[in-house]
UniProtKB/TrEMBL annotation:
One of its GO terms (molecular function) is odorant binding. The keyword Secreted applies. It comes from Culex quinquefasciatus. Keywords: Secreted, Signal. Belongs to the PBP/GOBP family. This is Odorant-binding protein 56e. It is found in: Secreted. One of its GO terms (cellular component) is extracellular region. Residues 1-20 form the signal peptide.
Length: 143
């Protein structure tokens, strides 16, 4: 998988799936990304399947799988949410749509203070913050 595919893939995990064209595109993005972090985190096929189908992570391995995705792409440094990394990835998804750009920027601003010493729990905290921020602005995630 090349860097472009990975960049697009991580966006899903931060609610970009709200903008996805089809369910099949979402699943393919998830599948590609899950494989890149599976071995590193010691995840099972079931953990990967949960990631692919957007089941909220519950176990430590599932949360760490999510963290791997976020850290790989600069959305998190393992201690806090990184607004610029999130925005860079989201720009790929929203393109020139100014309304969506504004919504994404507002969501990022709302999540800028998300921090946690536990990188795996941080991933979930970021997911929740972004999801809620986008939903407040009228975007519903496909889960």
């Amino acid at each position: 998988m090349n860097r472009w595919q990975l960049a697009v893939a991580v966006v899903f995990f931060l609610a970009a799936h709200a903008f996805a064209q089809t369910d099949e595109e979402v699943l393919e993005i998830r599948r590609n990304l899950a494989q890149s972090c599976k071995q590193r985190e010691g995840a099972s096929d079931g953990d990967v399947e949960g990631l692919i189908t957007a089941v909220e992570p519950v176990t430590r391995v599932q949360k760490c799988l999510q963290s791997c995705v976020q850290q790989q792409h600069g959305v998190s440094d393992g201690r806090r949410f990184l607004k610029e990394g999130y925005l860079a990835l989201m720009r790929v998804v929203v393109g020139t749509d100014q309304l969506r750009q504004r919504i994404v920027e507002e969501a990022a601003d709302e999540c800028i203070g998300v921090e946690n010493e536990d990188r795996c729990q941080l991933a979930i905290d970021i997911m929740i913050c972004v999801k809620q921020a986008l939903q407040k602005r009228g975007l519903r995630s496909k889960e």
